[in-house]
Design goal:
Helix content: 25-40%
GO molecular function, one term: peptidase activity
Protein name: Isoaspartyl peptidase
Radius of gyration: 23 Å
CATH superfamily of the largest domain: (Glycosyl)asparaginase
Pfam families: Asparaginase_2
Number of domains: 2
Strand order of the largest sheet: 4-3-2-6-5-1-11-12
InterPro entries: Ntn_hydrolases_N, Peptidase_T2
Number of strands: 12
Shape: globular
Strand content: 15-25%
CATH architecture of the largest domain: 4-Layer Sandwich
CATH topology of the largest domain: Glutamine Phosphoribosylpyrophosphate, subunit 1, domain 1
Keywords: Autocatalytic cleavage, Hydrolase, Protease
Number of helices: 9
Largest sheet: 8 strands, mixed
Length: 350
């Protein structure tokens, strides 16, 4: 009997040690970073189909996406902050006429190019944004200045431009932003309006309202950041503002979960608070980034107004996992991980 008790006690100790080991192993697996640092970008989502792109046109987009993400990657690789990586990456995209942000911004109904942008720090939850500016060369710089050098989160219109000048940001003549292709886009939309048609329902134009650029990054210090910049919607009126400068809709970052930048029909992203909703599902429900992004983009967003909620997000979590989720035919996008592996895509994968 004594020997039996000794054997039972021994087995209990062995089982206890095994359980603790397995528990420790699972915990380490959950908390192990996939990437020491990572960066993901987008250049807009919408009616982007292979048949509408020549090889030369595809190459232009691929080259610019690679140039932009490489800038941010090098900042992260050298120990820089996720905020700096996001900001400098978006500047490259704003300076390119290929995207609906900065230089390539679409025209309003009145014939202006107006810009919205935002940036957020996942460590402090501090954020900055600007809306409706016409002379600030790089709106993402203005968003960063609002975050760092003002007590506010969002500045708009002429007041935002006054603040930009006070911060010695680069301002330009409004003509700098004008491009022929965007002007033709405005003319086309207006012609459709004369025929009692709307750009919202024309497949050839639909992607014009989805043009945005954005970036999300995780740095070596474990801090997340995200930023978004846009020229808004072609032919927009009445000072319309979309989701890009709205924290929680177009941009969100929280070190506890993830960093997100959105691109799509802004009104629906605002109504769905898309960027924050992904973070909330991770924080409160314990979903992975991939699960949360799919749940919001393919489920919640796509069901608003019987399928009118279209667009996508790029995001990175605090372990360096990245997602690029969208419910449109395409989204300009790219990722780079800590190993320097680059992935660029334009269309939906078959």
């Amino acid at each position: 009997m004594k020997n039996l008790i000794i054997i039972i006690a021994f087995l209990a100790v062995v089982f206890s040690c095994k359980t603790e080991t397995e528990s420790s192993s699972n915990s380490e697996k959950i908390n192990t970073k996939e990437n020491e640092f990572a960066i993901v970008i987008h250049g807009g989502a919408g009616n982007i189909k292979p048949e509408n792109f020549s090889e030369a046109k595809k190459a232009k987009y691929q080259q610019k996406l690679e140039e932009a993400i490489t800038v941010g990657y090098n900042i992260l690789k050298n120990g820089g902050t996720s905020l700096d990586a996001v900001q400098q990456t978006i500047i490259i995209l704003e300076d390119s006429p290929l995207f609906n942000a900065g230089k390539g911004a679409v025209f309003t109904n009145e014939g202006y190019n107006e810009h919205d942008a935002s940036i957020m720090d996942g460590k402090t939850l501090n954020a900055g944004a600007s809306a409706g500016t016409r002379i600030v060369k790089n709106p993402i710089n203005l968003a960063r200045a609002v975050m760092d050098k003002s007590p506010h989160v969002l500045l708009s219109g002429r007041g935002a431009e006054v603040f930009a000048k006070q911060q010695n940001l680069n301002v330009v003549d409004p003509s700098y932003f004008a491009t022929e292709s965007r002007l033709k886009g405005l003319e086309r939309v207006k012609n459709l309006e004369k025929n009692e048609l709307s750009a919202f329902y024309d497949d050839a134009i639909k992607d014009s309202k989805f043009g945005t650029v954005g970036c999300a990054a995780l740095d070596k210090h474990g801090n997340l950041a995200a930023g978004t910049s846009t020229g808004g919607m072609t032919n927009k009126r009445w000072g319309r503002i979309g989701d890009s400068p709205i924290i929680g809709a177009g941009t969100y970052a929280n070190n506890n979960t993830c960093a997100v930048s959105s691109t799509g029909w802004g009104e629906y992203f605002i109504r769905g608070m898309v960027a924050h909703d992904i973070s909330a599902l991770m924080e409160y429900k314990g979903l992975s980034l991939q699960e949360a992004a799919k749940n919001v983009i393919q489920g919640k967003l796509s069901k608003i107004d019987d399928g009118q909620g279209n667009g996508g997000v790029i995001a990175v979590d605090n372990h360096g996992n990245m997602v690029m989720e969208f419910n449109t035919p395409g989204m300009f996008r790219a990722t780079m991980d800590a190993n320097g592996e680059l992935n660029i895509a334009l269309f939906k994968k078959k």
